[in-house]
Amino acid sequence: MEFNRNLLAVSGTPGAGPAPATPFGGAASAAHRPWGRLWLDGSLPGERGVVALALGPRDHDFRPVDAEILARWLRAGTPLTQMAAPFAAIAYDDQQLIAATDHIGLRHLYGFQGEGWAAVSTSALELARLAGAPLDPHTVGTYAVTGFHLGEATPFRGVTKLPAGSTWRLAGGELTTASYVDANEPAKVPGGDPVEAMAALLRGNVERCLDEHPDTVFELSGGFDSRLAFAALPAARRAGVRTLTLSAPAAPTRSSPASWPRTSAPTTR
């Protein structure tokens, strides 16, 4: 299945929308389709195609999902609840482009709806450039306080994130949102305890990563994410695992914490 980090798709009615652009520094390949224009940073599939925007699409049992099944699920919508996060993909033909993100919105996709035209991209910045969208002081201010862009907000006015558990349909200069998750139906978690279920999923993913990539190096930056990933590794498998730590140029280089100067501590970020 084709994998791309960068995507821009633009659809518009005749005479509407901005002039054609060359996004991503001109590195992306471009193709015309009846519904609009498509840019991808890899090779472009034919008239019909499915493109993964997150590496290695898999279901919740960590089984790979092939292109044919994924294309069918993207068009149907509801089966996408079986996809494990992070996940995003597009499917397109001569009528429309369908984009989807995972059920918890870990893989961000961005959209803009203009007068008679609309666009989808993996980059909010590329959409802002295309639309001439200014910075939004409210969302930038919120980010300064919280460290997050809340909900579907982005730094740019009019540029939004695809909501978690949703698809976008791009055709005829319109961007249409649909949810594939039933908000009224409680999540079905194996075992009944979501914390235990997610902990087991993380442990399994970390072990499978080591099984498939024995040369994996753990970055121990001192933050929550790296500690959580290493804690998910069973104690019996930790011996001999390679790790990488970060420090400031002026930090001590001795390996023993007891030998570090009392007046300073190693900087990890």
Automatic annotation (TrEMBL):
Top-level taxon of the source organism: Bacteria
Gene3D superfamilies: Glutamine Phosphoribosylpyrophosphate, subunit 1, domain 1
InterPro entries: Ntn_hydrolases_N
Location of region: Disordered: 247-269
Annotated protein name in UniProt: Asparagine synthetase domain-containing protein
Source organism per UniProt: Phytohabitans suffuscus
